[in-house]
Structure prediction request, 315 residues.
Amino acid sequence: MPHATSHADVTAAELDTALSGGPFHVALRAAIAARGLPLQRVQHHLSRHGVKVGVTSLSYWQQGARRPQRPESLRAVRALEEILQLPEESLIRLLAETGGQSASGRPASRSYRSLVEASGVLERMLAELEAAPGDGLQTLGHHERVRIGARRELLRREAHHIVRAHRDGVDRFVAVHHGDPGCVPERMTVRALENCRTGRVLLHHDTGVLVAELLFDTRLRSGETFLFRYGVEDGTADVCREYLRGVGGAGGQYALQVRFDERALPVRCHRFAQHSPAAPRSGRQELPLSERHRSVHLVEPRARSGIVGIGWEWE
Prediction:
């Protein structure tokens, strides 16, 4: 049950320690206690900042039972920094650090914060295109092939989609590519490989997000199926350690194959899943690397909402 936080004699030194070392929920709890604010008052202050968060959610956040992850929740965290008189970015930084760890405890290729920033950029880019990924389309099958180069970089990826229109008039698909840290979107190339052609391409340098229209040159009728294939030439980033795919809702079959250059083979590979970018990773399973084909793969017979991916370790 939600409860008010007592002052608990939290000193400035203790609060500084919590803010510097985390984790997020400990720092939040210490900050609220240091200001002597019951959660109802915290909620009231948030509402004056134009942010709506329930007392129950605040209680869960400071207990570590849940983590802020939706855009509205992240706005609340930034408002809390001001309300609780904390240094700017202090709570957001802790979310980024604890949310960006891999199952092995090593930093993941993309931090929680970078994913949050990219999601905001993506929303604006999709609004510019007046579209959304898979808008008007149901995914029956999605097969991806990722190639890792000799420098251990994400060299390219290829996607094969099998879709069904659930309304009349659908004539395009919006593809999203999120490059690894250090990538240069301006040097990436989108290639329409089968049953489509490339339309508008938008990119954002700082987050490494690229969005591309794939035009069908036909208007699908509701219930009609369509197959198309496209690829993204990347090869511009630093060392790649994982590839993940976010699924917005329940879909069809998803298959991912990662193939490595013979001059750069990982020592071990595994699959993983997440309910959201802020959630802990689960379902870790070691994947055997085919010596002949230098590849690993996973198959989800029916993709569920969330994230699924393959990670690997270099020597």
Q: What stands out?
A: DSSP finds seven helices and 13 strands in the chain. Residues 1-8, 98-109 have pLDDT under 50 and may be disordered. The first strand starts at residue 137 and ends at 148. Residues 62 and 232 are 42 Å apart (CA to CA).
